[in-house]
Amino acid sequence: MKKGVKLGVVCLARKTFDYKAAEKIYQELKKGLKKIENTAYTFINDLVIEVKDAKKAANKLLESNIDGLVVISGTFHLGHLVLELDKAIRKPILLWGLNELPYDGGKIRLNSVCGVNLDASNLYKAGNRKYHAIVADTIEQDWIDALRINAALEEAHIGILGYRAQGFFNLAIDELNSFSEMGMLIDHYELNEVMNLEVLREDVEKKEQQLKEIFDASGITVEQLKDVARLVVKLQKFVDDNRLSALAIRCWPEFARDFGISPCAAMSFLQAENYILGCEGDIEGTISMLAQQAVGAKTPFLADLSQVDLEEDYALLWHCGVAPCNLWDGKCNISLDTYFAGGRGVTADFVMKSGEFSVLRFDSAQGEYRVFLQKGESIPMEKELKGTYFKAEFEKDIKNVLNTVIGNGIAHHISVVYGDFIRPFEIFAQLKGWKVIK
């Protein structure tokens, strides 16, 4: 389900144009808006024509605590109106222009697009870049989804368990810069807060049975399977008790050494149940996963651009065995294995399903945030490796993708989801003033 948002909606007009027609159009547009998933509204029902109308509307919208403002240019209108709204509300704005109606006696009836032009110019020259403009018969839902991303990040409670993985300096994060850019605070927890957490035996036994139903566990010991089940319950309880939106975990080397197994398989299980868990202490990767979830993407996961074949033009998106188990291709043997960490790795092993996928990474460098985006197709392959992975054909040739990643210093984790989830992040980046790297 998409993250819920609340929008304010106004329709601007001027009586020297066909404001009666604009009013009828507005009533129909409201009906369509009400059908959009998980979106609430504060409508200003009357046309906003005079400055006093704009001030009154602004006060009502300010009280409603909206996430964004839809400004419909019903007809051309006074330039004061959008500025009065912006002065009070200070939220992202969608400037919505209407297609022109058939002429009436040689007179233009709406002149709506010129109104959008006026408003955009006024906002831009006043220093506001948090606006987006369309000319259409229906709203651009990708803009609404961009607001869902913003709302999810502002409301998020992000945790990091331990620290980033050893030597992964590129996964470090400036916490106050992330607060400034996204409005989130990050809470730090020690690894032993999960390892030592008391849980009920019956809960562990239930999870153990579920694991047996999903995975071929013949490659691990009975005790290792119990440890995976215990860690599932501990992580789930920890996230729920602390009301975390997402948790980044330092998953090696301490877990295998001190708990007896790595958390990969436990994370694979929980991510399939819509928990956002990032490996190797990668906070920005974890935030990227949360952002994809906000726009309706299901079970995001972190992967490495692990192997590239320049001649065959594909890459392997692989990780050690942490991807959500519900993304299994349904053909290969889905199993648990201990191929690393001296036999204490305990990872999920399977080829992931085929289909369209989207890649996202919110990535900071020298105080600036960038948004890395790619799209491609996961294609069938045989199970030849340990871990979780799929063969990826990108829209761009793999050499171009690789050069883009390396040339821009993008961190080596990317958040991946199935489906097309690109455009909302382009709009989100525009509203934030972040660079888009594609």
From TrEMBL:
GO terms for biological process: monosaccharide metabolic process. GO terms for cellular component: cytoplasm. Residues 19-64 form a coiled coil. InterPro entries: Fuc/Ara_isomerase_C (IPR004216), Fucose_isomerase_N/cen_sf (IPR009015). Keywords: Carbohydrate metabolism, Coiled coil, Isomerase. GO terms for molecular function: intramolecular oxidoreductase activity, interconverting aldoses and ketoses. It comes from the Bacteria. This is Fucose isomerase. The lineage of its organism: Bacteria, Bacillati, Bacillota, Clostridia, Halanaerobiales.
